[in-house]
Specification:
By secondary structure, this protein is mainly alpha-helical. The protein has two helices and no strands. Keywords: Membrane, Transmembrane, Transmembrane helix.
């Protein structure tokens, strides 16, 4: 599985807000059992969110 992002990609406000909501307001488990069941899915979402969120910052850093 390969991912391609052109250097011209710029972060968009809606996407930034989506990621901010992801990390500032994490999902709250209703019980320890729910927490156990959701851990793997939440971990994958965490990794995907960061994978999508970091590249635009790298581009901004390279440009400025």
């Amino acid at each position: 599985m390969s991912f391609h992002l052109s250097p011209s990609v710029k972060p968009t406000e809606p996407h930034a807000k989506f990621v901010a909501v992801k990390f500032i307001k994490p999902s709250i488990a209703l019980s320890p059992q729910d927490d156990k069941d959701n851990f793997h899915r939440n971990n994958i979402e965490f990794m995907i969110s960061w994978f999508l969120f970091i590249p635009p910052f790298l581009y901004i850093h390279m440009i400025t």
